[in-house]
Write a structure and sequence with these properties.
The protein has seven helices and ten strands. It has helices spanning 3-14, 47-64, 77-89, 130-141, 158-166, 177-186, 194-203; strands at residues 18-20, 26-27, 33-34, 36-38, 70-74, 93-96, 109-110, 118-126, 145-154, 171-176. α1 crosses α6, α2 packs across α3 and α6 (177-186) packs antiparallel against α7 (194-203). The longest helix has 18 residues, at 47-64. It is globular.
């Protein structure tokens, strides 16, 4: 566990951007029961946390993708983070729409992007990886060289890891599910014995055996 992973985990827990409720699971749109709720948009309304997140994203890009020329946010949650991080780094930014506009220039990529430019995608959360891979593919089709992705938080689900590997997409997250679960137990957000239940969910979300009846 790095200092940044711990700091961002503490921040997300403090403002309830990540909120664990293993005894009263949330229900996802898919019907899957989940012990965790994640809304990283809350970081934007917490200035101290926002400062930690954006500076950590900038430092991560400088370290992992030193050749980056443009930052591209995912729509919609990654847009603000890409804009703030690009401002810190003095880089151009844009974003990728979930679908092309049906009017005007019918853009799906907003902002100037030249063929061959080296791009880093900024995402807030990665679970199964489908949405960020779609963004990467759109940028590649437009002629960009996508160096990789930076994200605030990742579940580390096997499906997501396998998808990213198959698409040859590198992702670096500021923190992850395992770290946040450990910090949550250390700081009394959950009981230590809940960690195993949380990891059981993460490893197989469709298996509800972690739920205590």
């Amino acid at each position: 566990m790095t200092d940044i992973q711990k700091l961002i985990a503490q921040d997300l827990l403090k403002i309830k951007a990540v909120f664990f409720r293993p005894d009263e699971p949330f229900t996802w749109a898919s019907g899957i029961k989940s012990p965790v709720y994640c809304d990283n948009r809350l970081t934007l309304t917490a200035p101290e946390v926002r400062n930690h997140v954006e500076n950590a994203l900038a430092e991560t890009i400088r370290r992992e993708y030193p050749e980056a020329e443009v930052l591209m946010g995912t729509s919609t949650a990654g847009i603000a983070h890409a804009a703030i991080t690009a401002h810190i780094m003095d880089l151009p930014m844009g974003y990728v729409r979930s679908g092309a506009k049906d009017h005007g220039r019918k853009n799906q990529i907003e902002g100037r992007l030249e063929k061959g430019q080296k791009v880093v995608v900024v995402e807030d959360l990665i679970s199964t990886g489908g949405s960020v891979i779609e963004v990467v593919n759109i940028l590649r089709e437009a002629g960009a060289e996508v160096l990789g992705v930076v994200s605030i938080f990742t579940y580390g689900m096997s499906k997501g890891l396998e998808r990213l590997a198959a698409a040859e997409v590198k992702n670096i997250s500021l923190t992850n599910f395992d770290v946040i679960a450990q910090i949550a137990a250390e700081e009394n957000y959950i009981r230590p014995e809940d960690i195993a239940r949380l990891l059981a969910f993460r490893n197989n979300p469709s298996d509800e055996s972690w739920i205590v009846k």
